[in-house]
Write a structure and sequence with these properties.
Structural class: alpha/beta
Largest sheet: 8 strands, parallel, barrel
Helix content: 40-55%
Radius of gyration: 22 Å
Order of helices and strands: HHHEHEHEHEHHEEEHEHEHHHHHHEH
Strand content: 5-15%
Number of helices: 17
Mean pLDDT: 80
CATH superfamily of the largest domain: Luciferase-like domain
Number of strands: 10
Number of domains: 2
Strand order of the largest sheet: 1-2-3-4-7-8-9-10
Distance between the termini: 21 Å
């Protein structure tokens, strides 16, 4: 990357150190093992009689594209599904767009296994339970057909449908899509109930459920709670993992909730827990205790540099071998940049009100931070329309993923180079399906 940041973000001059070193294009046959899962997926979608031929063709395509540098264009045929084609193309794109060798995960006490972050960047979608649940299965199947790796469903107490109902529908309507509740909290449901929901979803679709967890924002305010404390988040992760592993919790307390005695019907392989984080202490806790983090920390170098420092501090104390970093990208993709930025202004106002330190890093003055706070006190960010109008466009660009396809293609390229494992688009404004389709084009072309 260049020493100075591109002007289309309005960034500070210095880029942060990546979360890990960007990925290097494969240049030899031995590196073929990195794309073996994609080859397996291609072969599985081929007609039985064509599997040997398809395997040979895919092997040659990978070697040609990676060793010689020729861009391979994979066209959908009656043999390959759209999903397979997009996954294959995304792996080729991901391995070709960066310049240095990926580093291993941090060395931590007791850590074993292959780092999950050794995979190419993965792409997903975030949605609320606003779709008619009778049609949500079709929506989830469409997301999978576009080639996305995962679908997050926000957990809302009152202003949207129940996330676990929608997650169940999505898992039943898809075959390989990972589905996460993004994110639940340890207050509005008993931790034992949340663990039991996770057990059931893990049985329904083994290996495809992700448990997102956070302190809580509008879902807890709506029911008269305050956001959960860090110790409650820590204890919640421990309690759920113990329950999933078959333990009985007797006379134990998690936050304000008590276990008198009992365990789940059957143990399951514990699903991964991703902790949502914006501030440094929660980000550090995610690195220490989580299987992953959902970063809501802004999309500009200074913000990601600060998040990286907190994550590394937590990972240094972690005994968990695998860890993944996922960024939520809130915004609208469209040809009219002003309209796209307007759709994301409420999100930028949420940052100014709830995590003002990030807004300061983005260049927002103390006067504007105070003005935003006077108009919006927190909660559901999409209610911050008036407060969002106070914010300059250059700040919105740093905090959201909104703009024209050309600008956002460059921003996505930058994100690929930071070492982030996954990004998930949260479409805002009207025509949200158009934004999802546009994001698929950016991700897989």
């Amino acid at each position: 990357m260049a020493a100075s940041a591109p002007s289309w973000f309005g960034w500070p001059s210095d880029d942060p150190a990546p979360l890990r070193e960007p990925r290097k294009p494969m240049r030899n046959v031995s590196a073929f093992v990195r794309v073996w899962p994609a080859l397996t997926l291609v072969a599985a979608n081929a007609k039985a009689a064509a599997i040997p031929t398809m395997a040979k063709i895919c092997f040659c395509m990978i070697l040609l594209s990676q060793c010689v540098g020729v861009v391979v264009i994979v066209k959908e045929t009656s043999v390959l599904t759209t999903r397979t084609v997009r996954v294959f193309k995304s792996i080729l794109v991901s391995t070709r767009r960066s310049s240095t060798k990926i580093s291993s995960a941090p060395t931590v006490a007791g850590a074993t296994g292959t780092p999950y972050d050794a995979l190419p960047m993965r792409y997903g979608i975030v949605t609320q339970g606003l779709e008619d649940p009778r049609r949500f299965g079709d929506f989830a199947a469409w997301i999978e057909s576009l080639g996305f790796d995962h679908l997050w469903i926000t957990d809302s107490s009152l202003h949207a449908g129940d996330a676990y109902v929608y997650a169940t529908i999505a898992l039943q309507a898809t075959t390989i899509l990972k589905v996460g509740v993004g994110v639940t909290n340890p207050l509005t449901r008993h931790v034992g109930v949340t663990a039991n929901l996770g057990r059931s979803l893990s049985q329904l679709a083994p290996g495809r459920y992700i448990c997102g967890l956070g302190a809580g924002d509008s879902p807890v305010f709506e029911l008269g709670f305050r956001p959960a404390k860090l110790q409650t988040l820590r204890d919640t992760m421990t309690a759920m993992r113990r329950l999933w592993s078959g333990e009985t919790l007797a006379d134990e307390v998690v936050g304000a909730q008590r276990f008198w005695g009992g365990g789940l019907l059957t143990p399951v392989e514990p699903p991964p827990i991703y902790l949502a984080a914006s501030g440094p202490r929660t980000t550090e806790l995610a690195g220490e205790c989580g299987d992953g983090v959902v970063l809501l920390a802004g999309l500009f170098p200074d913000a990601l540099a600060a998040a990286t420092q907190s994550l590394e501090a937590g990972r240094a104390r972690s005994v968990r071998a695998e860890f993944a970093t996922c960024c939520f990208l809130h915004g609208r993709i469209g040809p009219n940049e002003d309209e796209a930025l307007d759709a994301a202004r409420p999100l930028a106002a949420w940052y100014a009100s709830v995590v003002p330190d990030i807004a300061r890093k983005a260049g927002l003055s103390e006067e504007l931070i105070a003005a935003v706070a006077a108009n919006f006190g927190g909660g559901e960010f999409q209610g911050a329309v008036e407060a969002g109008r106070l914010l300059p466009s250059e700040v919105v660009r740093k905090l959201a993923f909104s703009g024209s396809p050309a600008i956002l293609a460059a921003k996505l390229d930058w994100l690929r180079g930071t070492g982030i494992d996954a990004v998930s688009m949260f479409p805002l404004g009207p025509e949200r399906r158009a934004t999802i389709s546009a994001f698929a084009t950016l991700a897989f072309s």
